[in-house]
Amino acid sequence: MPQASKAATELGTLEPYISACVALAQEKLHRFSSITDIGAREKDLNRYPRLARLEEPRQILILKENDGDSDRQTRARAAIARGEVLFEHAAAGEGTRLMLGSKYFLDIPQEITVARTAHLMSQESGRLWSPEDVAAQLECPPHELLPITLGSRHMLQMAFDLENLARELGESPREVLARQHLLIIIGREMLAHIEKDFYQWHFYGFKPSQVYFMVQESFHGLNLKHGRFFYDVNSPARLHNHGQMVMQQTLNYQLFTLTGGHPWEKTFRSGREVADWLQGFADKISYNIEDLDYLTSSLDFHGLGLALQLGDQGYNMVMEVMANNPAKPQKGGMLAWDAELERDVMIESFQLGDISNQDITYLNRNFNHYPSPGVCWGRIGEQGLPMPIAVKDGFLYFQPVQGDINFLVKTAFFRRQEMRPIRNLKSPAALPLAINRLCAQDRQPGFKEFAQRCRQGCL
């Protein structure tokens, strides 16, 4: 598979990345005469090189959540309370499969009714879902949910759980919140709205100078003419997947903080400043806004305790895997044993050739830990990531994935002792579950009152 070369860093520009993409296409795909020809071979070009020889995974660690390992949990709680964990929240996706626009600003009680849910599920599945069928699955009707967007709920849950943790430890909730560091990844079209959102919610009680933002940029497609690839500004602009997101973080002046009273008062950070910042953390946790289990439990002390322990053993990436849902198996990263590498590897769906969703036993939950995160950051900056391709609307786009970091650093994989299917909001089929998870979030003792205090700036 093509590998992205190390891009030269310039002040705040992504032009080196664009140039690297053009050069990579020219180097690896020069034998093709058209984008159409590349599209016809897309599956083969992205195929994992040892796909036919993969076996069932052998090295999955089992996380026993009822084993009474209080020392590991105590360490995790203390690390969070001291601000030693960086919380990264990815909310830049295009949400095309869900057909509801940006997930961050999805306001289910305002935008989703039982009838609309039935319509969207029918469109997706090709079979008729009646409103009565949908209503039978719901713990509460959508209009009874608190009128809070999914992104705000995501941030509120973390602040809410941190406040509860502080009280359990006998510490000041305000001080514990002020110690935390966050990195929020957003799309360009969402920037002004999310900045306004953070100001309106008083940064959810977090210290503004420690809430970092990065805009994951979209890119036009590559075109091919007379044997030469070129960046075609007349093509649609698209995101290059979440692997580009992590590569962009290693460039100069991509991360910024809102340090004044207005959104235009930004302070951009150099690569050296970001590297120094990352050195201060024992772990970075990468959350995805679509994870529905997060809505009632954003702080996983069991998983963090294990990640910190594995960090002591030299691991710099820890990936959680979950069982695929046999009733509705979905595509995603697949865990398998690679005999040539003599270890388990996480292989992204782009690389799986003709392997069907039903044949994927263990899926990447898209919930990753990075013990000593500066190590991954440095390795990505030096080596880049594999660059699978996608042809869309007649243009070529690269689609690097975050999970491929497991090929760069020592990586461990774990699953829960109680195997649960993956639960996330990727498509209309998940809307009833999402509504039920939001209902459970609203019913948490004190959550509604906490949200009101946060909105008023009274945390």
By CATH reckoning, the class would read Alpha Beta
CATH H-level superfamily title: Spore Coat Polysaccharide Biosynthesis Protein SpsA, Chain A
Strand content is 15-25%
What's the end-to-end separation, in Å? 49 Å
Gross morphology is globular
Class inferred from helices and paired strands = alpha/beta
Average pLDDT metric: 90
**Total of DSSP H or I helical runs spanning 4+ residues:** 16
Helix content: 25-40%
Main pleated-sheet profile: 10 strands, mixed
Q: Indicate the low-confidence ranges by residue numbers.
A: 1-11
Whole-number total of structural domains: 1
Task: Return the CATH architecture.
Answer: Alpha-Beta Complex
> What is the CATH T-level topology?
Spore Coat Polysaccharide Biosynthesis Protein SpsA, Chain A
Cross-sheet strand order for the largest sheet: 1-18-12-15-11-2-3-4-9-10
- State the total count of DSSP E strands: 18
- The Rg value, from CA coordinates, equals 22 Å
